[in-house]
Amino acid sequence: MSTSKSVIISMMIVCSVTLWGCSKEQPAAEQVPFVMVTQPATIHNEQKSYAGDVQARQQTALAFRVGGQIIERYVDVGDRVKVGQVLAKLDVKDAQLQLNSAQAQLESAQSAAKIAADEFKRFQQLLPINAVSRSQYDAIKSQYDSANATLKQAQSNYAVTANQTGYNQLVANKNGVITERNIEIGQVIAAGQAAYQLAIDGDREVVIGVPEQAVSTIKVGQDAWVTLWSKPQDKFAAYVREISPAADQSRTFTAKVALKEGQSAIQLGQSARVFFNTTTQNMLSVPLSSVSANANQAYVWVVNADQTLHKVPVTLGAYGRDSVPILSGLNANSWVVVGGVHLLREKQKIHPVDRENRAVTIQATPVASTKVGGGS
Predict the structure, then answer these.
(1) Dihedrals φ, ψ of 292, to 5°?
(2) Is 241 strand, coil or helix?
(3) Looking at the predicted structure, is the pLDDT value of residue 21 above 60?
(4) Burial class of residue 305 in the structure, from the number of CB atoms within 10 Å of its CB (0-12 exposed, 13-18 middle, 19+ buried)
(5) Residues above pLDDT 90, as percent of the chain
(6) What is the DSSP letter of 28?
(7) Residue 41 and residue 45: Cα distance in Å, rounded?
(8) CA 15 to chain centre
(9) What global pTM score does this model have?
């Protein structure tokens, strides 16, 4: 190969390398992202809810005042009853026999008392003229007093037996709805044994079970609101009327939440949920979207004064609906990232903005504190 050709080839190679190097794209500079930040809230709002069912505020067990065998049953669960309505009957044969016996005893006592009264009246007339002795008069008076006492006893016994005969009918003492039935035709029951459960017309309330770790946060008179499972879009104002002083077998405390409105729209036995809003002062909290975790250690991204990020481990409280309390690890003046925390890295440069997309100026503040004040 001639010298001129070698020179030309070398020049072509140099030009190709030069052009290839010029055409290669330079790496673009890393863009600084705009990141939403916020400061921890010092008032923590928390919403808790508990499931329950609608009950009548006043309920009573209806029972026969005498024992016997059921021969008639007129109402069932769900039936509406009125005052004086007969609900069930007992067999009255034995009661009628007792009433007949008491009536016979009464008639006998009345006859004996009439004879004793007539005899005593005659002796009262004979005593002043000394036609009878004083001892005879006293004996007749004693017979008269005894006959009157026997008559009163027979009258009382007859009245009791007549009442017991009437007690063979179970009658509603209030207007309401039958919620439970415990008797069947032919069943023999004892006096006082509950036959029906009556929910008395009037105010309604929701009965819930509150776990022991949360019962201290609920107070009598505290406002609440209720939703029904069948109508979750409707909300009814309510308040805590009563809290049981002792836990039941399920280790929960029964709380009764009385409704302020919607009485006519709510039926007995409906499933409901009671909501409580609680506010805790002097406790830092951040949005749930600010918190992430690594190796079971929760953390938040804090923005430094030079607009770089720093991962700060924190101790969390009980999660709320939209936020979570920070028990330790965060300063009240810090700015923390809201959302997308899993896409960030340590020392990353950002443009911090608030919820209105306005630029935020970060002041130099302590990154973390050892402990944040608890709730009041």
Answers:
(1) -135, 180
(2) strand
(3) no
(4) exposed
(5) 36
(6) P
(7) 10
(8) 86
(9) 0.52
